[in-house]
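re the bet — no i am not wrong, look at it urself. input seq straight from the record:
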Amino acid sequence: MSPIEYDMIVLMEEGTYIAYCPELDISSCGDSIEKARAMLKTAVRLFLEEAEKAGTLNDILEESKFIRDAKGRWIPPRLIATEVMSLP
């Protein structure tokens, strides 16, 4: 499998850290940020391995707007900003 980059957003829900990869719509959780990060890395790796076995990896990544660079790495669309907003 070619190297791949992806973003991680961390949320907290009822005392549990949720690590989320928006490009692939994959999440995992843990009792610390480090554990949630490690669990997300495992979930993304397993997802990509299964997609590669099924022959759908390139289609999935292209549909998710990843771009393959000159070195063969998959680069995701860049997350530019997150912001907490509210309505009155």
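see?? The longest helix spans residues 33-54. told u. also The chain has a mean pLDDT of 94. so pay up
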